[in-house]
Amino acid sequence: MRLKRKIKNTIYIASTLVFGWVITVSGISAMKHLNKVEAIEFRVNGETRFTLPADQVDEVELLLKKYKLSYLSKSNIAAEAKILGVDFQQDIEVLPIKVDEEFIFQDVEDIAYDLELNEVEAVWYTVKDGDNLWQIAVDHEDVNMKTISDFNPDLDIEEFIHPGDQILFAPANPMYDVEVRLENTAIEPVQFDTIRIQDNNLLTSQRIILKEGIEGEKKVVYDIKIVNGYPTEINPIQETVLKQPISAEVKVGTKRTVGRTGGNGYGVVSGRLTSNYGYRTHPISGRRIFHNGIDIAAATGTAVYAYADGKVTSVSQDNTLGKYITIDHGGGLKTRYLHLSAYKVSVGDKVTAGQRIGSVGNTGYSTGSHLHFEVLKNGAYVSPWNYI
Ligand SMILES: [Zn+2]
Fold first, then answer.
1. For residue 205, what is the domain's CATH number?
2. Which of 99, 107, 216, 308 could join 245 in a cystine, given CB atoms 3.0 to 4.6 angstroms apart?
3. Which among 124, 161, 158, 162 is positioned nearest to 364, based on CA atoms?
4. Within a domain: residue 81?
5. What does the DSSP assignment read for 251-301?
6. Model confidence over 26-36: pLDDT tens digits?
7. What is d(CA 107, CA 7) in angstroms, rounded to the nearest whole number?
8. Using one digit for the tens of pLDDT, what is the confidence trace for 149-178?
9. Distance 340 CA to ligand 1 centre (A)
10. Residue 198 near residue 252, CB atoms below 8 Å
């Protein structure tokens, strides 16, 4: 194919020279009127790239259409999604023209060849013995758990990776970029309120749940842009509440024994809530996901405090959880603190409510510095909002 193109380009240059010479020498532009035939021109951003026989127009249109549509299947889009458009980012035109027969020296195969070309090739990583995703992300600039998850949608980050596995670090940038616009609906939880009733007979570290809160459910419509098979924009454009949440009622103590964090501290850390507890669906694939805790964004190093009195039962690290701490509060209640940058306690330590146990970080499967806080009741995840 490459050779064929070379020969054709050589003919093109040769014929341009010959014709230029003929026209210059003779000064007769009448030459041009000879042998004019119907043809099609394939233009990219206003510039002629190929000149083809007129009878190939349908074949060219079909080729371009197939190429664009191939990105729909490559993009892992939910069947219910509403496709708004599939277009080249470049301005591509296939126009009828009249030219001297000698100028038609390319065909649909040249376009097919062009469509396979990349401006930048894909970057793959082969998993080595002893690798883990977290360390891979730490070791490579421009690679983080979010890009790994975006570029490898079939990779289950909770699973182990094996030597020889291929991980896509950066996708290829093809010569012709295809942009898919779509709308998709995702189901997400609605946070419930907590009504706090103060009680002088209880310590500040104590609370009694009078009524458990229940998450509501909402429908969120996302406007999504996918370029060359990978999402570049996911914006919520409309929200509809399907099920109202039910408020929790908690009796909280006011007798102070240990200092707890003030402000919007969520008890365990000061920061901004970025992801709630509950079920939601993935905005692109529609896959159902359960978020078993709450995410509170805070700068790396921000203090993390024990939720209540208890005993530290694990201080450990893992691919997904990063550095984490588990505290057993007795009565079947446990709390976990994930993605930490540092520990301030050890296994077996007795801690009191509000005691510093570690620092916020970005370790494990984490897309930014935050604390993921979980509450387990008899081994099952429960909404942390009932407890903080
Ligand atoms: Zn989380």
1. 2.70.70.10
2. 216
3. 158
4. no
5. EEEEE-SS----SS-TTT--SEEEE-SEEEE-TTT--EEEE-SEEEE--TT
6. 444 445 456 78
7. 13
8. 888 877 776 667 788 889 999 999 999 999
9. 12
10. yes
Query: Where does a domain end: 156, 171, 186?
Result: 171
Do residues 206 and 246 share a domain? yes
Question: Could you tell me the distance, in angstroms and rounded to a whole number, from the CA of residue 47 to the centre of ligand 1?
Answer: 49
CA of 276 to the centre of ligand 1 (A): 8
How many Å apart are CA 266 and CA 303, to the nearest integer? 12
Q: Are residues 234 and 356 in the same domain?
A: yes
Same domain, 356 and 289: yes
Helical residues (DSSP H) of 123-196, grouped into ranges: 133-139, 145-151
Q: Taking Cα atoms as reference points, which of 234, 218, 188 lies closest to residue 77?
A: 234
- Output the CA 315–ligand 1 centroid distance in Å: 18
Residues 321 and 379 in one domain: yes
In a domain, 63, yes or no: yes
83 domain-assigned: no
CA of 330 to the centre of ligand 1 (A): 24
Q: What CATH number corresponds to the domain at position 158?
A: 3.10.350
- 324 and 345 in a common domain: yes
Q: 367 and 305: one domain? A: yes
Distance 294 CA to ligand 1 centre (A): 5
How do residues 102-137 score in pLDDT, each as one tens digit?
888 889 999 999 999 999 999 999 998 888 887 888
Determine the distance separating the centroid of ligand 1 and the alpha carbon of 182, expressed in angstroms: 27
Residue with tokens 């604390």: 371
For residues 36 and 96, the answer to whether their CB atoms sit within 8 Å is: no
Q: Per the confidence metrics, is the pTM higher than 0.85?
A: no
One domain, residues 196 and 256: yes
Q: How many structural domains is the chain composed of?
A: 3
Domain contains 289: yes
Q: How far apart are the CA of 380 and the centre of ligand 1, in A?
A: 16
CA of 318 to the centre of ligand 1 (A): 15
Ligand 1 mean position, distance from CA 251 (Å): 27
**Dihedral sign (CA 305, 376, 295, 203):** negative
Tell how far the Cα of 260 is from the centroid of ligand 1, in angstroms: 23
Ligand 1 geometric centre to CA of 355 (Å): 22
Q: Which domain holds residue 298?
A: 178-386
Are 203 and 108 part of one and the same domain? no
